[in-house]
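BUG: 3D viewer hangs when loading the predicted structure for this chain

Environment: internal workstation, default settings.
Expected: structure renders.
Actual: progress bar stalls at 90%.

Input used:
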Amino acid sequence: MTAVATQEYVAPPPADPTPGGFRRDPRTWLRKNLFDSPASSVLTVVFGVLLAYLLYRAARYVFVTGRWEFIRVQLISFMVGPNFFAGGGTLPRLWTALYLLSTLAGVTAGVSAARGRAAGLRETLRRAAPALLGLAVVLSFTRTLTPTLLALGAIAAFLVVRLAVGRLPLTLTRRAWVLQVVLFVAAVWVLTRFQGGAWDSWGGLLLTVFVAAAAIVASFPLGVLLALGRRSSFPAIRPICVGYIELIRGVPLISLLFVGQFALGFFFPPGATRPGNIARAIIMITLFTGAYTAEIVRGGLQSVPAGQTEAAKAIGLSPLRTTAVIVLPQALRNVIPALVGQFISLLKDTTLLTIIGVQELLGVSQLALSGDFRGQLLAPEAFAFVAFLFWVLCYSMSRASQRLEGRLGVGVR
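Structure tokens produced before the viewer hung:
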């Protein structure tokens, strides 16, 4: 007898509805996702009515009842602080620095376009939607047309530079980092003229972004070095890194900020120029974030399979080159979401600076409310504006992280 193999056809299960299915067949999508049973239909109606009411109240507050003239009067203080002009700062210097940074962003985007890794103009504008929304809201509070024209000029400079650099040969774009460094140094020079105390008179959004950016740039390499030191086999390095990380992670940030304001000066020799309040705050925030970044990077280092290191040893790579070329890139790729989350937390932690007398974005709002507008109950408008600016910054960082994860294939095997 000969055995005959038979195969029955089994129909695949229906595909799960996707967001694109709503555009193709809205009625079917709504029926499957929101009204598939009596209970879900009741919940959909109840929460739909609640959501509509909340949206109505929010829209009425934003466009009808909100007293936003207070923001219009105090807009410059919210942007650069109340002492910006008293400290020698000028708006032309600020706009010049913004144009240099816009050109720097255009060069960076153009290099990506030349290498075939950039999206089209429409996709670029969609990605920049949160930042453009924040810019539009801020410009809506200006009293003259000049800031709007200057902002449009900065956007135009970005687009022109991106288009020009994107058409350059690939061999020329390999040296674009020189131009990027020159533009960044020029922007810093225009703003500070490399004077250590130039930013002591800053405040508002300018100071918040500056402190967060400086601390992020400084804390990332510190955290990487600490993570490598904690995994080092040298007995003189590992205990120091472990002790530093555990000590800093066990102390609240506000305590470190107080230490920076009142005790950091004792670590400098007599007669040495001591850093200002803002420089001390940046130092302490950097030390604090570096410890948390070290633990995040250490987790990424542990996630790299041991076979990667063994393969590197098999082909004769030195331990240093193995770490720099094979292990560390994979580790950093794996921890991009956690790193960006930590940096977003750093940005929000800058609001603690108001406790030590530094007039960042939240501190400026409290100072404005205690001035000529005292007793007028304008705190909801002030804090809503501050919250919106923080949302724009944090959401833009999150969107950038998602794009980087997609490009590097994080979570894809």
